[in-house]
Design brief:
This protein is an alpha/beta fold and about 500 residues long. It is about 40% helix and about 20% strand. Bound molecules: S-adenosyl-L-homocysteine.
Length: about 500
């Protein structure tokens, strides 16, 4: 079983850096004993321009068969022979993947104590596997490696070169080339994809295989188009493990998507704020729009007499922070679906260093507004500041029910962009929403229609308050609806 890793270099970045990356000196041939036999590492070539490391695994077929037997394999006489006479010693398989991870473990993790800057740098790499069992054929090999940025050369290996009429074997010669990948990435791709292509059960698959897969798949597996096939084959088609892995990958993907959304939102808010500032450069400078929004929200909360307030979709906690400074608000709860936003919020608020009295006034927790949540019941007011436009329209009724039907605070404040105002943003091309994550932006009429219908359905009155400069033609940049529960108003009036 054989595999080579080559790189090219320049006098400044010599190819022999490969020796540092692999933690194996190019001047030595070394042998390591692994669980399936002896792994040899040697360098057929090593100079500043070109350097190749070869990993050769000498499989101990007898030991392998014994290990197999210990796990209850074998039994039928012909199966016994197959344990000794098979392709294992010759074909790159899961055994080679296991050897890779044990012989090059630091390289796979991307650590290099001697030259810590090296592992993070992509470099030209060429990896050749002369005999690779490829169930699914050359086409599948491409589908697995090409999305990862590799230029793939894959040639079927003939069953017997002397008898071409016998056709191809199930083995291929594989060459991967890229100059945009780090060695650690390359090794982690191979570690997962070699056994996937081999698609044979070589060792007992236990639940920690899921952890190994997720660790090696970090950064590439969550977005890989063949994720399901990879996961299922890697886990030897054990359905419960595969499902577990796919669920965890989905969570990773969501968390990542969420991260970018939060960052983009931040950038967008900043952009809008800057645009407002730029526009009014010559006049007296008003506060940025985000600040004006916060002030408008706090003023409306003050009028409502609320003391215990929910900030739903609190993002990075700017409003929570402002509310904490105001003694009228005795309890403030920030809720967001994004764990990352909450982490930033808790850092902003210095929750861990807060005095006991202050800390008892504030709580942050993760939750989705698309579901009813008993933790949201019993508050005086709820704020949804620039949140509704982040939900797909068909999800909006679920949020309406969760807030107005289930949580039912006396007062609900909802702010959202007024799309009519977009023509006033010089930096915004016509017909564009203010931010990529906005699923919709409404005119004043659309927002009014929605808010009145919600108020009617759930027994609230609603008033509208402009936020930011109220343009005579297109209205203000932000529109705010103030909902007050009817029964409460009637009760206090009586
Ligand atoms: N209210 C903050 C953040 C607005 S950005 C401010 O005014 O600055 C919109 C926020 O809504 C994001 O933090 C996003 O994570 C959150 N969000 C989006 N969909 C959500 C949902 N279904 N449940 C809870 N929060 C959600």
């Amino acid at each position: 079983m054989f595999l080579t890793i080559s790189t090219t270099g320049t006098p400044e970045r010599p190819a022999t850096d490969l020796g540092f990356l692999l933690h194996k000196h190019p001047g030595n041939a070394q042998a390591f004993s692994t669980s399936h036999g002896t792994a040899h590492v040697l360098y057929p070539e090593a100079d500043a321009e070109r350097c190749t490391a070869a990993l050769l695994l000498e499989v101990d077929a007898v030991a392998l068969a014994r290990r197999g037997k210990g796990k209850g394999r074998g039994g039928a006489p012909d199966a016994t022979l197959a344990q000794y006479v098979n392709d294992r010693p010759y074909a790159a398989s899961s055994l080679l993947a296991v050897a890779l991870s044990s012989v090059f473990s630091s390289a796979m993790k991307g650590t290099c104590t001697a030259r810590p800057e090296l592992p993070g740098q992509p470099r030209p790499l060429r990896i050749e596997v002369p005999v690779l069992p490829a169930r699914g054929g050359p086409e599948l090999v491409r589908r697995l490696f090409e999305p990862l940025g590799w230029t793939v050369t894959v040639e079927p290996v003939a069953l017997d070169a002397e008898f071409p009429e016998w056709g191809d074997s199930r083995y291929v010669r594989l060459v991967l080339e890229s100059s945009g990948r780090t060695l650690a990435e390359a090794l982690r791709h191979l570690y997962v994809l070699l056994p996937v292509l081999d698609d044979a059960k070589h060792y007992w698959v236990s639940s920690d295989e899921v952890d190994k897969l997720l660790r090696a798949g970090e950064g590439w597996l969550p977005a890989h188009p063949e994720q399901k096939l990879i996961t299922s084959r890697y886990l030897s088609r054990r359905w419960s493990l595969t499902r577990q892995a796919i669920e965890r990958l989905e969570l990773v993907r969501l968390a990542e998507a969420d991260d970018t959304a939060v960052e983009e939102i931040d950038n967008a808010v900043e952009e809008i704020d800057n645009a407002v500032e730029a526009e009014t450069e010559t006049k007296e400078r008003p506060a940025p729009l985000a600040v004006q929004r916060r002030d408008a929200v706090i003023a409306a909360l003050g009028t409502s007499g609320a003391a215990r307030v929910l900030d739903l979709g609190c993002g990075q906690g700017q409003l929570v922070q402002a509310l904490l400074k105001d003694p009228r608000f005795t309890e403030i709860v920030g809720v967001d679906v994004s764990m990352r936003a909450l982490t930033i919020a808790s850092r902003r608020l210095k929750l861990d260093r807060m005095g006991e009295r202050q800390a008892s006034r504030v709580k942050l927790f993760q939750g989705s507004l698309a579901y009813t949540d008993n933790r949201l019941k019993g508050y005086d007011a709820a704020v949804l500041c620039e949140v509704i436009e982040h939900l797909d329209l068909p999800r909006l009724p679920a949020l309406e029910y969760a807030v107005f039907g289930s949580a039912r605070p006396r007062t609900v404040l909802v702010t959202t962009p007024n799309v009519e105002y977009n023509v006033r943003w010089e930096s915004l091309p016509a017909g564009h929403v203010r931010h990529g994550d906005h699923r919709f932006e409404w005119t004043r009429e659309e927002f009014g229609t929605w808010a009145c219908a919600v108020a009617e359905r759930y027994g609230y009155d609603v008033e509208f308050v402009p936020v930011g400069p109220d343009d005579p033609e297109v209205g203000p940049p932000t529109q705010m609806a103030v909902f007050s529960m009817r029964t409460v108003k009637e009760a206090t009036a009586a």
